[in-house]
Structure of GCN5 family acetyltransferase:
Amino acid sequence: MVEIVEGNLDSKGCYCLRSKSNSSGYINKKQWLKGRFNEGLKYIKIMENSKPAGFIEYTPIEYSSRVVYGENYLVIHCLWINITGKGYASQLIKKCIQDAKEQHKDGVIVITNQDTSWTPSKDVFLKNHFIEIDRSPYGFELLVHKFGNSPDPYFPSDWDDRLKRYKELTILRTQQCPFIDIATDNVVTAANNLNIKTEIIDFKNREEILMLSPTAYGIYGVIYKNKLISFHRLTYHTAMKRLKE
């Protein structure tokens, strides 16, 4: 395991989009990370034969970009493994759990979604003694690994009201994922070709994410005519199709 910190970020690099390290998405992700390490965020890559086999990113809940309420938990943002069948995912999850214990947290949270690959897989967390305790629209599941009898984390319940705020095409986002720029560009290009004006809202802090995000995912959402268009990257052609609908 290699922990990425500010001092080795430039030399070790991020996992996602590493083949395009000069892209705006990759550069924005690095800048985002530099502002998060002092908040307790951990970014850990697991290596095999000096090549990255996967990574995990997690942070204290008070700084998390996931839309979940609770206190004294760590929240896993991302878990991705490209060399499967060797237990690397479980190793990274156990590292997070151990960190949570050493920090005297009440447990670890992760949000999953069986309908998309843009969140971690649910099954590997169930194998590591997480339990599902809540669900929210669009297939999101709240899983937790608790150490004691502390209060459960929970999703908000005002999802419909959040969509009512946005009749015009609106993209709400953070730079937590390096693919956000690509996702944004595809929607904006499609919208321009349909003569639809796009407003982009960059979340400044967790409070804005908790209040405004249209889904539990938190880092990206596209709304048009009070309807969720997407919470993850779309191709240009898919974006065109959904905007026409």
About this structure: The chain has two domains: 2-146, 159-244. Helices lie at 9-12, 24-34, 88-102, 122-127, 159-163, 180-193, 206-212, 236-244. The first strand starts at residue 2 and ends at 4. The mean pLDDT is 94.
